[in-house]
Structures are given as C-alpha cells and as structure tokens.
Amino acid sequence: MEVMISPVAVCCIILAVFMAGTVAGGDRDHEPQFTRPIGNLTAAVGREAVLACTVDHLGNHRVGWLRAEDQTVLSLHTSMVTHNPRITLTHDNYKSWQLHIRQVKETDKGCYMCQVNTKVMKKQIGCLDVHVPPDFLVGDTSGDMAVQEGDNATLICKATGNPQPRVTWKREDGQKVLQRKGLRDTVEVDVLAGEELHFWKVDRRQMGSYLCIASNDVPPAVSKRVYLAVNFAPVIKVPNQLLGAPLYTTVTLECHVEAFPNTINYWVKNRAEMLLNGSKYAVWENQTGYYKVVMWLSILTFRPTDIGTYNCISTNSLGKAEGTLRLYGLADTSASESSKSKSSTTVESSARDLQINQPFIILSLVTALLRHFNIPLKLS
C-alpha cells in the first residue's frame, strides 16, 4: 500500500532529523561558532550570487540554509532540499558553507539564514539585493501623440527597475528641447529630467521625435521613441513676389510652405489652369523639415506670353493657403548696347571724314557759286 506524505510533513521530518543530529555528549567547550558574518550581497539579474557561512568547531552538528522570510528549507547539511535547480551548495571541509544562486532572478531578492543545530539554535542572516536593469511600464508610457497647435500636451514615460531608474528626455534629431515659459518667452535645453515632459501652448517648432531614456547604472539603459505631431493649417511665404527676367531664358519661381499634416501643393497661372510637368514647365518640391516644404516652378523658355501672375497653392485637411508672384519681362540689354555702339561708331567716323576733307569741300562750294553768277575764275 502506497502512503502519501504532504510537503509540510516532509519539512517537519527534515527539521526533526536536523535537530536530532545534535550530539548529547559533544564537547561543550568547543561548541560551533560563526567566524564571520555572512554580510549583504548585491547581484545583477542573470549573474551568480554566493552567500558564505563559515563555522568553526562544527563537530557532529549540522548546518542548514533557509529563506528567512518564510522559513523555506533550502539545504540540510550536505543535502539539497529545494527542487530549484539554480540553487546549489558547496562546502570547504565542513567549515565554509556556500549557498550558490545561479542566474539570479528578481524573486531571489531577500534574506537567507544559516543555522547550526546546537542545543540553543545558532543562526546568522545575510541579505541579497538583486539589481534589475530598467524597463518601461508599457501601460503607463505615452505612445505617439498628435495635438492642435496652441493646445497643451504631456508626454509620460514610466520605468521600473532596481535601483529606481532615472528618466530623462531629449530630442532624437539632436536639436534642443524648446520649452515655453510664458506667452512670449521660451528656453532651449539639451536634456530634461523627469517622467513627464510638459508642453504648454504647443508650438510647431516643438514637433518631432523625443527619446525617453531610463537608466539606473545596471546595464543596459533603455530608450523609447515618442513622436509629437503638431497639426496646423498651411502657411505660405514667398521670398520674391515681384520677379523680372530676360525673355527666352529659364525662370524659376519659389514658395515656402509650413503645414501639418502633409499638404497637396500645385501652381496656377492667372488663376486659371494648373501647371504640370512637361516641355514648358518643370514642377518639383522638397521637404526640409517635419512641417516645411519648398515648392519650385521653372518656366523653361520665358516668352512674352508667359508674363503674368502665378499662384502657389497648398492645402491639407485643416485649411488652404496661397502665395502670389508677378512675373514681368526685361529688355535684351546686350542688343541695345550693341546698337548704341554701332551708332556711336558711325557718327565718330563721319565726323572724322568731315574733318579730313574740309578744304576740298570749301573749294568745291566756292567754284559752284562763281559758275552760278558767271564770274570768271582766274588761277595764278
């Protein structure tokens, strides 16, 4: 017949055997003595912790290890009681008894008791502190966020670990963190400490990715990326609203757009047809930041029919904006200068010829007058 014994009964039997190991006829003058305290120990998660209990004059007494909080028996003299494969026991000629805890876990944190079964039980305690690298509390940490410009926003980042992690914030792109201190005053800092990053009346310049970094000197430190989007209607700035260009050259018009979310951008002439890429026009744009875009329109051969008003237009779900540019033609200054040069050369040449032939011209005029009035011409 098989007899079932409960774990509690097993522990009681073990303790009874442990206590029964006391030798009544032992040398009372040389009772077991602890030679040094166990001391407190710190180990990082995943490492090995070794608690040492050193006893002199052990004789026929026995040494046992227990967890102090719940009196769980781990070892009894040279035998292991716990079924935890990570916990083992070694001894140095029955003098130094080492309790090894491999691949330490956070649950191993606590105090451990070394006992010797003397008539009056002798014991000492050593405590293990387990250092845990930081980790984020997912439910309490912000994800990506979108707010309207002018609203308030708060990014939250909570972390756990032992020791308690330090939390800092910085921008992922390396720019400074912009903080508003009043309606007009702002300050810029490299790093902000604390679990919460507050934005009051958020500005489009504060848009971007922020890194929450948690560290507690137990590697590795961890970081989480949180993107703050600031929504606002398009705004267009035109660097040059009135532009003159020589005819039959390539002319490029430019507009700067600020908006979020992303916009649809296009060009029109004289508020009529939309201008598209082709043999006549080249249209392109480039995003220069989270919310900035530069638009260009090139007129590949600027003709008199291209003179007029051009509009760059940008629209998103929050609104629409447009910029106006007026384009006019310039005269061909090189041809004008050439004509002036030729005219000047002709006048100068005529004057020079007149100066050289002046005596001959005068004589011819006098001869003609004499013949007209029938006056004989006598030459001496």
UniProtKB/TrEMBL annotation:
Family annotation (SUPFAM superfamilies): Immunoglobulin
Classification via InterPro entries: Ig-like_dom, Ig-like_dom_sf, Ig-like_fold, Ig_I-set, Ig_sub, Ig_sub2, Neural/epithelial_adhesion
Main subcellular localisation: membrane
Q: What are the entry keywords? A: Cell membrane, Disulfide bond, Glycoprotein, Immunoglobulin domain, Membrane, Repeat, Signal
Which GO cellular component terms, listed alphabetically, does the Swiss-Prot or TrEMBL entry include? neuron projection; plasma membrane
Leader sequence range is: 1-24
Q: Where is the Ig-like domain?
A: 32-126, 134-223, 234-326
- Name the PROSITE patterns for this protein: IG_LIKE
Question: Which stretches are annotated as coiled coil?
Answer: none
Q: Which domain of life is it from?
A: Eukaryota
Q: Where in the cell is it found?
A: Cell membrane
Name by which UniProt lists this protein: Ig-like domain-containing protein
Lineage here is: Eukaryota, Metazoa, Ecdysozoa, Arthropoda, Hexapoda
